[in-house]
Amino acid sequence: MLRWGMLCLIAVTQAAPVSARETGRRATLSAKIDPNSDYARFVRRLRDGDTAIDYAAFRQSYTRLSGYDGFDRLDTAPAYAALREGKVGLALDIAVKRLDVAYVDIEAHLIAVAVYRMMGLPDKADEATAIARGLMTALRATGDGKGPQTAYRPILLGEEYLLANASGLRVAGREELRGHDVLRVVDPKTGAKSDIWFDSAGFSVNSPAPDK
User: Which long-range contacts (C-beta less than 8 Å, at least 24 apart) are formed by 73-81?
Assistant: First the structure.
């Protein structure tokens, strides 16, 4: 079961209230992204409020962009620090800049959820939540992570850690094994140890992650 609060919403309860009169910037498309690509069309639909898209196809469209690099990762620490300090403008800037180049980044959408809830903008928060949940559901549908044959197929390195955290597990280590990443995880409640397998073969520039 996904534990969304563990991902970023705890930061909201630790931060100071923010006036609802503040408004957030909407992500745009980086000038480096082909506006006629399938990816760009998906982004425009989402920005127009249509969250009922094919998220699996959306994720794959991102891997087909020129210059795609699955190792690219959002540094979330500054955003979470800004949320704890009530600096929602800074947190939103970090999320929006990331979404400009990677609208498929689940954690960037979760940061936006936290910001919008702090700003008293439930409709925007619900929209960002729907996108994050759709992307996470599509990721989880790619496998079960129990071994190399059924490994999850992330399109961004950050998805590996996000999936583990969303399952309430603590990452104790990471190993690369023949085109796979293996996260060594621990259940903090029981102490049980296990592995989560990810197919990382597509994590290279202009080398799309394989379709499931």
Answer: 73/156, 73/157, 73/158, 74/98, 74/102, 74/105, 74/107, 74/108, 74/158, 76/107, 76/111, 79/111, 80/8, 80/11, 80/111
For residue range 96-142, what is the model confidence (pLDDT) as tens digits?
999 999 999 999 999 999 999 999 999 999 999 999 999 999 999 99
Count of residues making up the chain: 212
Spatial CB neighbours of 123, under 8 Å, sequence gap ≥ 6: none
Domain count along the chain:
2
Cα 169–chain centre separation:
17
Q: Are residues 179 and 120 in the same domain?
A: no
User: How far apart (Å, rounded) are the C-alpha atoms in residues 37 and 41?
Assistant: 6
Whether residue 104 is found in the same domain as residue 63: yes
Considering the domain architecture, whether residues 166 and 84 belong to the same structural domain is answered as no
CA distances from 109 to 127, 146, 183 (A): 9, 27, 23
How far is residue 152 CA from its own chain's centroid?
Answer: 15
**Tens-place pLDDT, residues 87-103:** 999 999 999 999 999 99
Residue 70 CA to residue 205 CA, distance in Å, equals 8
Distant-in-sequence, close-in-space partners of 115: CB < 8 Å, separation ≥ 6: 24, 83, 88, 91, 92, 95
